[in-house]
């Protein structure tokens, strides 16, 4: 159902004259008829290698930031088990002389 809605949206865009290869994804510069188009991640067009490289670096930085914030499920489970255990106090020893 959802894919049909997306297909219809894309169909409407094409019929209205808007096309995904019309402008650079990053700088919005119009893509010319006789110029190279640099693609990234499927259908993302760029006017130059520089624009594409800038987007790739931004994506890598975002992904690295996201990885730092995510806690793997195994570590999360470990934290939950250690938090549930009561803290053990060291027993006090009495010296007898």
What would you say this structure looks like, in words?
- This protein is mainly alpha-helical and 97 residues long.
- 48% of the residues lie in helices and 6% in strands.
- The chain is rod-shaped.
- The termini are far apart.
- Mean pLDDT is 74; it is low at 1-16.
Compute the separation of the termini in Å. Answer: 83 Å
- List segments where confidence is low: pLDDT < 50 over at least 5 consecutive residues: 1-16
Number of DSSP strand runs: 2
Over all CA atoms, what is the radius of gyration? 28 Å
Given the helix and strand composition, which structural class is it? mainly alpha
- Bin the strand percentage: 5-15%
Spell out the blueprint of helices and strands:
Elements: H1 2-15, E1 38-40, E2 44-46, H2 49-69, H3 73-84
Antiparallel strand pairs: 1-2
Quick structural gist:
Helix content is 48%, strand content 6%. The protein is built from 3 helices and 2 strands, in the order αββαα. The protein starts with a helix and ends in a 13-residue tail after the last helix.
What are the salient characteristics of this protein?
mainly alpha, rod-shaped
């Amino acid at each position: 159902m959802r894919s049909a809605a997306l297909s219809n949206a894309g169909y409407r865009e094409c019929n209205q004259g808007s096309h995904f290869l019309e402008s650079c994804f990053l700088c919005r510069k119009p893509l010319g008829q006789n110029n190279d188009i640099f693609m990234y991640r499927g259908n993302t067009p760029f006017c130059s290698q520089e624009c594409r490289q800038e987007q790739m670096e931004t994506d890598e930085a975002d992904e690295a930031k996201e990885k730092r914030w995510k806690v793997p499920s195994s570590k999360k489970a470990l934290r939950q088990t250690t938090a549930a255990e009561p803290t053990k106090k060291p027993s006090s020893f009495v010296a007898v002389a």
